[in-house]
């Protein structure tokens, strides 16, 4: 929801910017995890998305003072980003709420296959970096995480596949990077659109830990870098994440182009 008074601000700052309006809600709450220590992930962004009169949520992560990275399927008519949040249903002193003035999905995003599911959000003003709000580093172009690596994912999405109940407080879970073969491209299987060059297969099915609806767009953190973006998948792991390292040249070029 836009807060009172921000509609005009958004209109003035974003006048003339084309918005291709699309929102597809797919995978993306944390299953089998626990509440994150408050403000332990200062790069996390909470996205409120308005689309055709309805509101949905996604995750995202701050990659510079005025850019958030998220999934392309989180696109909407209007997006408001909240940074520095732990409990998104309370007004915390740490929170910074900033409208998005430009949504830039990858030009080759395919809403059917979810390929190239990555989007940059340009904020109308720079975030103020502090102990609650900070950026996260991205991997080097082409850098891959080896299967067996333990990474983590966080979000405010649903905590159960059985019922719609998003979490007020940030949840997190450790997940294992799987070999690409664990997301087999069988013609009628759940991973038929899996593309190893642009996607990562993440989550051991034996452990049952996963991201889910509402977590979309959030980061898969391996070491101290955001290697993946919550994208899509069936109700049980493994889930499919956008492979960030593939898109580093596009991310860098787009940010350079939009900065004054």
From TrEMBL:
The keyword Hydrolase applies. PROSITE patterns: TRYPSIN_DOM, TRYPSIN_HIS, TRYPSIN_SER. Keywords: Disulfide bond, Hydrolase, Protease, Serine protease, Signal, Zymogen. SUPFAM superfamilies: Trypsin-like serine proteases. One of its GO terms (cellular component) is cytoplasm. It comes from the Eukaryota. GO terms for biological process: proteolysis. The keyword NAD does not apply. Residues 30-256 form the Peptidase S1 domain. Residues 1-28 form the signal peptide. GO terms for molecular function: serine-type endopeptidase activity. This is Peptidase S1 domain-containing protein. It comes from Chelonoidis abingdonii (Abingdon island giant tortoise).
